[in-house]
Amino acid sequence: MFYLQNSRSGGHESGMVFILAIVTLALLGVLGLAAHETAHLNSLIAANDRDSKSAFFLAEAGVNAGHEFLERAIAAANSTFYDDGTSATNASVWENKTSFNPDDYPVKWHRHGAAATHVRAGLIATGIVPGSAMQMASGYESTGRGAALGGTFATYLVRSHRQGLRGSAAEVDLGWWHINH
């Protein structure tokens, strides 16, 4: 039987391989920690993106429901939603306001815990529809034969504000032109 023997003596070893192994493991540990932090940051970015998109879509849904609610309130002569004579429903007062107070919004939809979609509407202006005429003579026919349909209009601002999860918020404005024939 043959036995292989090391020709170098043990006193001359300097431990360089051990030092290289420790340095390599340290570098791999730092790379692993950096990869973990990057993955964690990406998951937080994705969650914030989802929450902000959800807040925007729910605010948009609120403004769409708000204009339907406005039309029903006009048809039912329920002016407290859009014109109660106070500055709360005068959109010219609050249309450029940037602060948010949930007490200013009479309607809340899509409630989920602390998150809710707040909707308000306000009157901006009224007037006569361009091209309208109360009475008009038309050629050889009698008076009123060529009268335009016309009518009056009221312009409303419907604002929807969504307070979402993790501090996300979105606000959508809709200018609504209601024509009275």
Structure, described:
The chain is α+β, with helices and mostly antiparallel strands. The protein has one domain. It has helices spanning 16-75, 91-94, and strands spanning 107-112, 115-128, 152-163, 169-180. It has a 4-stranded antiparallel sheet with strand order 1-2-3-4. β3 and β4 form a beta hairpin. The longest helix has 60 residues, at 16-75. Residues 142-147 have low confidence and may be disordered.
Topology, element by element:
Blueprint: H1 16-75, H2 91-94, E1 107-112, E2 115-128, E3 152-163, E4 169-180
Antiparallel strand pairs: 1-2, 2-3, 3-4
Write down how many β-strands occur, each being a DSSP E stretch of 2 or more residues: 4
Cα-to-Cα separation, first versus last residue: 114 Å
Q: Give me the Rg, rounded.
A: 35 Å
Q: From the helix content, strand content and strand pairing, which structural class follows? A: alpha+beta
Domain Type 4 fimbrial biogenesis protein PilX N-terminal: 14-63
InterPro entries: PilX_N_dom
Organism: Desulfomicrobium apsheronum
Keywords: Membrane, Transmembrane, Transmembrane helix
Provide the descriptors you would attach to this structure in a database record:
single chain; 181 residues; alpha+beta; 4-stranded antiparallel beta sheet; 2 helices; 4 strands; 35% helix
